[in-house]
Amino acid sequence: MEIRWLGHSCFELSEGDARVIIDPFLKPNSPTAPVTADEVDPTHILLSHGHADHLADAVGLATRTGAPCVAIVELAKWLDARGVAQTHDPNLGGVVEFDWGWVKLVQAFHTNTTPSGEEGHEPFSAETGTSIGVPAGLVVEIGGVTVYHAGDTCLFGDMKLIAERTPIDVACLPIGGHYTMGVDDAAYACGLIGAETVLPMHYDTFPAIEADAEDFKRRVESSTSSRVVVLKPGGVHAA
Ligand code: NI
Ligand code: MN
What we know:
Mean pLDDT: 96
CATH class: Alpha Beta
Largest sheet: 7 strands, mixed
Helix content: 10-25%
Bound molecules: nickel (II) ion, manganese (II) ion
Oligomer: single chain
CATH architecture: 4-Layer Sandwich
Strand content: 25-35%
CATH topology: Metallo-beta-lactamase, Chain A
Number of strands: 16
Shape: globular
Radius of gyration: 16 Å
Order of helices and strands: EEEEHHEHEEEEEEEHEHEHEE
């Protein structure tokens, strides 16, 4: 199974004919993405929450490719209303199965709004956007590899429980701070999760979330048994 980081929290998981994209936020919406939405061809799309930096390219990609989308129920209904042909709408704890494996929605501590899509509207506002309940993290099993994509979240103790229920091979964790946990808390999270490999995400996309990924790597590898792989946008990790 191959994991390609497309910048920010966007990853493409590839196994056989399956290309699963998580949180599509691509060029030019994302300042760090190496590709546009026309340069990827997902078979499936998974979403952690409705913030624009995770969702911006979801509707366009899904309508062009016909890829089904998995998102928490309110966000799935929002996608339905915007013309996405096939959605799966679990809530927290729900599992959706595919021929390549499965995805389970797990807890994340953050907020969740969807953009109105109107010019000039602030997408993170609950006034011009829409507040739609809770966000999620994603546990994905594909090609016999278990990936925990934590979504946007602060540190919480039940990351340990999530990993007890499904031992994690690869954890994708936000380290940028300000909107999510930062380097210090994310390094602590690695001790709770016990993944073989950790891929940092959600940093250096914007000035507010600049972080030192090499410092994160040093801290994690000196205090836990996890190995941190710092990818560049476009970089691939073979799991
Ligand atoms: Ni967010
Ligand atoms: Mn975010």
